[in-house]
Q: What sequence folds into this?
């Protein structure tokens, strides 16, 4: 039976070859078409004409930016510039007056599982009766589902994330009993457990100790090396050039956006911060040190 099938297959193959030879257009039809320039992968985050207002007062105005894939991106600007509001608008946590936000080409609701979030420490109720392991496990609920139990596998994933930020030994400590740096590491571990493709972090370096800052930088670098995209609200102008590949300068509107080396300039900082010359002087000195080290 196998011989008969092989013979029939060979016969059909020979007939097909003859037909293709007789009709040259058949060969052309079988060629693999080249991808169109319009078929490129969508950006991790695309924001177009975004405006957000509180009580009819604009906080963000006409924001348009495309965040490139696999980059460490800093959002930099003065207090009250709308940085946290921008991240919240991306995640549908605040209403938009106008505009469109796409996560990998789709609305946030359709791609929320691809987004990891690290909130400001001040926005967290640290007296809530949960331990560090519980907090990290909460990052897995999108995969587990609210009606399904947390399994040993999920707990191991959470423990691995805590180990990655160096606080596995604090897994069962109540979150209010953690130091500020340990609390920040806990929420960073929660984001890691999500295994997202786009990370949004609201001031992860704020008020942390030097050891925690080194851990955060290491984790962010590992995420970038793994092809993840990380968007970070950052206040320390002296470390922007050292930590980030890309920068968004924001003061209610986009002042400048692009690679850090060409965008994080004294001229653009002056436009962003206005008269806050002390900050500008510090940032200028930091940029000079970075240039000398290259």
A:
């Amino acid at each position: 039976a196998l011989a008969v099938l092989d013979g029939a297959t060979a016969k059909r193959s020979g007939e097909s070859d003859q037909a293709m030879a007789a009709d040259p257009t058949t060969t052309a039809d079988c060629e693999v078409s080249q991808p169109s320039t319009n078929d490129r992968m969508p950006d991790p985050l695309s924001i177009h004409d975004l405006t957000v207002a509180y009580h009819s007062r604009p906080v963000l105005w006409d924001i348009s930016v495309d965040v490139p894939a696999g980059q460490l991106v800093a959002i930099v600007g003065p207090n009250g510039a709308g940085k946290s509001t921008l991240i919240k608008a991306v995640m549908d946590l605040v209403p938009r007056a106008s505009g469109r936000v796409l996560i990998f080409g789709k609305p946030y609701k359709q791609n929320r599982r691809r987004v990891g979030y690290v909130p400001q420490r001040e926005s967290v109720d640290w007296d809530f009766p949960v331990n560090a392991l519980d907090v990290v496990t909460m990052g897995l609920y999108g995969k587990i589902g609210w009606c399904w139990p947390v399994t040993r596998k999920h707990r191991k994933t959470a423990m691995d994330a805590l180990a990655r930020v160096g606080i596995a030994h604090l897994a069962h400590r109540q979150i209010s009993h953690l130091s500020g740096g340990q609390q920040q590491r806990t929420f960073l571990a929660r984001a890691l457990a999500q295994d997202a493709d786009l990370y949004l972090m609201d001031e992860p370096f704020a008020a942390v100790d030097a050891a925690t800052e080194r851990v955060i930088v290491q984790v962010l670098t590992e995420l970038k090396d793994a092809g993840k995209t990380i968007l970070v609200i950052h206040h320390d102008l002296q470390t922007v050039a050292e930590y980030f590949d890309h920068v968004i300068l924001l003061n209610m509107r986009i002042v400048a956006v692009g690679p850090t080396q060409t965008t994080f300039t004294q001229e653009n900082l002056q436009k962003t911060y206005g008269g806050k010359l002390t900050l500008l002087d510090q940032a200028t000195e930091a940029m000079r040190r970075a240039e000398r080290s290259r």
The chain is about 45% helix and 20% strand. The CA atoms of residues 168 and 230 lie 24 Å apart. The first strand starts at residue 45 and ends at 54. The mean pLDDT is 83.
